[in-house]
């Protein structure tokens, strides 16, 4: 994530469900890091981890036309996320 500049987009195409699960979890955790915390922790809003990514759209799968032209595209899933600007503390 350090190589990606603010506003830069991370685009990942996965071809297997196990790969897609890793990508989905990584992007979800970076977009909403507070879901990993217990609600019972006594944290102020400023102490909560800030999101690093913003998910852009929904996962994109190949159309039927693309799959008929290229059968290997059937299992491909593309996910896009944009790096957010860091807020000064």
Describe the structure.
- The chain has two helices and four strands.
- The chain has one domain: Rossmann fold (3-Layer(aba) Sandwich).
- The two termini are 20 Å apart.
- It is elongated, with a radius of gyration of 16 Å.
- Helix content is 24%, strand content 20%.
- With 89 residues, it is of the alpha+beta class.
What structural keywords apply?
single chain; 89 residues; alpha+beta; Rossmann fold; 2 helices; 20% strand
CATH topology: Rossmann fold
Proportion in helices: 10-25%
Number of helices, where a helix is a run of at least 4 consecutive DSSP H or I residues: 2
Question: What does the largest sheet look like?
Answer: 4 strands, antiparallel
Calculate the mean pLDDT score and round it: 86
Could you give a short description of this structure?
By secondary structure, the chain is an alpha+beta fold. Helix content is 24%, strand content 20%.
């Amino acid at each position: 994530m350090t190589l990606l500049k603010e506003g830069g987009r991370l685009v990942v195409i996965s071809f297997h469900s196990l790969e897609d699960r890793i990508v989905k979890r990584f992007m979800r955790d970076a977009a909403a890091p507070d879901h990993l915390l217990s609600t019972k922790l006594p944290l102020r809003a400023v102490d909560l981890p800030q999101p690093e990514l913003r998910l852009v759209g929904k996962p994109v799968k190949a159309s039927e036309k693309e799959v008929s032209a290229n059968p290997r595209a059937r299992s491909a899933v593309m996910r896009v996320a944009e790096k957010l600007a860091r807020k000064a503390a």
